[in-house]
Fold:
Amino acid sequence: MNAPTKLTPDDFATDQEVRWCPGCGDYAILKAVLKTLPELGATHENTVFVSGIGCAARFPYYINTYGFHTIHGRSAAIATGVKLANPDLNVWVVGGDGDSLSIGGNHLFHLLRRNVDVQYLMFNNEIYGLTKGQFSPTSRVGTKSPSTPQGSVDRPANGLRFALGAGARFVGRAVDIQQANLSALLKRAHAHKGASFVEILQNCIVYNDDVFAHITDKKVAADAQILVEHGKPLLFGKDKSRGLRLNVKTLALEMVTLGEGGVSLDDIVVHDETNRVLGGLLADMEAPFPVALGVIYCDPADSYEVGVWAQMEQAKAKNPKPDINKLLRSGNTWTVA
Structure:
């Protein structure tokens, strides 16, 4: 028997013209996914990409697998149906911050709390790109857009906090252009059995350009972001001389510098990705704190479709030869004269 052919990123690319604006962060995410799929041992026939509406939602056209380009905000519900129908499928869901947290927030909530074994990738550019730049659920206060010409007064939604609050068992964050870290996070999300929520900070070059420059610019990146790794101290900065310490009185994180005020490595919090409380503290960090990247929280539990299929098997075992006529005539019946 011939050994199976090893697939390459090109094998997962399609012949469709990629129709994103030149310079869009979606290109970088697509590149990372195409690179990662062969490394996961994915196959064309066993992989499904599901999307809703928005710029990110064009993803299924550009991946040579099965795919559903569904309706606005409903991708999580349809992905749940796909996984229930065939638990062996490798299901990915792709959506923007508006598709995921506005019209789709209710469906995403239930996908996460049920712990359906899919990877949900939320592309967060803090704007509605496809419909020409209106403010989105994640837009910051003061964001000027066609729908908020004087600046948004809405408090932005925090995707990671939302996922943790919904009961997600895997929560992570990456940046579109950081290919190595993004690919590593995609692999971790895929390996997790249950719902994996991955927020990807993504630049919209037309309607919200450089919205993450205060995090990603090379001049500030070392101090503006922290890559969290399980079992390692939460250090950041060019020489890893800065860190995060827990204030036991306020139960809040605070930034410290090694060697100042008697601060030593023993004072720095060691990342425990199974600690939901720590995950929430990391999710909440914003300037002047560094933005947390990597696996923020991971604590596996039985996935939804496993429980559903177990119930079906138990029912079959109790009644191996069901009679549909007997079922229709059971219980409360009546005759219409």
